[in-house]
Automatic annotation (TrEMBL):
GO terms for cellular component: cytosol. InterPro entries: F420H2_bilvrd_red/Heme_oxyg, Pyridox_Oxase_N, Split_barrel_FMN-bd. It comes from Actinomadura rayongensis. The keyword Oxidoreductase applies. It comes from the Bacteria. Keywords: Oxidoreductase. One of its GO terms (molecular function) is oxidoreductase activity, acting on the CH-CH group of donors. PANTHER family: HEME OXYGENASE HI_0854-RELATED, PYRIDOXAMINE 5'-PHOSPHATE OXIDASE-RELATED FMN-BINDING. Signal peptide: none annotated. Pfam families: PNPOx_N. Residues 27-119 form the Pyridoxamine 5'-phosphate oxidase N-terminal domain. SUPFAM superfamilies: FMN-binding split barrel. This is Pyridoxamine 5'-phosphate oxidase family protein.
Length: 175
C-alpha cells in the first residue's frame, strides 16, 4: 500500500528566516527509526494521560499495542483522539515529530502477523499474532491500534523550523 504524501506548510512565525519545510522523507525517517514514542490520551474526566511505549510506522499509520485493562486502552475506548510524539531531547539538533489522529483497533490475522513480525525484527519483542491482537510469551493479550495521522507537526532544530503536514481526506466513491 503506497503512502499518501501530505501537504507541507512551513510556519514562518516559528521558523528561522530562509528555511524551507523539512522533506517528508525526513519525517518518515524519524517515525521509522525510534523505538520509543510518548502516547497522550484523555481520561473520561478530561485529565491527560501520557505514557512511553514502542510504536511501528507501517503503511502510513503509527501502530502500538496495549493491554486491554491498561488506562490508555480504557481512554481510547472512550475517546479515540490521541497524540504520539518522538524525537530527541536535544535543543540544537534533530527533528521532533508530533502525530495527531484517531486510534483504531487493528484486527485480522494477516495485518496482525505483519505487525508482529516487525515488533520482533525491530524491537526484539516476539508476539504470537491472533485474529484480534498479540499474545505474548507470558500468555498476556494485547490490543493493537493504528493511528492514521490527521496532522503531523515536525520541529526542526539547527536551523529551527516548524512544519505542519496536512493529509488529504480520502473518500470512497459509491457506484
Amino acid at each position: 500500500m503506497a503512502e499518501i504524501e501530505p501537504v507541507a506548510e512551513l510556519n514562518e512565525g516559528f521558523s528561522e528566516p530562509g528555511v524551507a519545510p523539512r522533506p517528508w522523507s525526513d519525517v518518515v525517517d524519524v517515525l521509522t527509526r525510534p523505538e520509543m514514542f510518548w502516547l497522550s490520551t484523555v481520561r473520561r474526566d478530561g485529565r491527560p494521560h501520557v505514557t512511553p511505549l514502542p510504536a511501528i510506522w507501517l503503511h502510513g499509520s503509527l501502530h502500538f499495542c496495549v493491554g486491554p485493562d491498561e488506562q490508555k486502552a480504557k481512554n481510547l475506548e472512550h475517546d479515540a483522539r490521541c497524540v504520539l510524539t518522538t524525537g530527541t531531547n536535544r535543543l540544537r539538533s534533530g527533528l521532533d515529530v508530533v502525530v495527531e489522529g484517531l486510534a483504531a483497533r487493528v484486527t485480522g490475522r494477516e495485518r496482525i502477523r505483519e505487525l508482529a513480525a516487525l515488533w520482533d525484527e525491530r524491537l526484539d519483542w516476539p508476539f504470537e499474532p491472533t485474529e484480534d491482537g498479540f499474545r505474548g510469551a507470558d500468555g498476556r493479550f494485547a490490543l493493537v491500534f493504528g493511528v492514521a495521522p490527521t496532522k503531523i507537526l515536525a520541529f526542526g532544530k539547527a536551523p529551527y523550523s516548524q512544519t505542519r503536514y496536512r493529509f488529504p481526506i480520502v473518500t470512497s466513491g459509491t457506484k
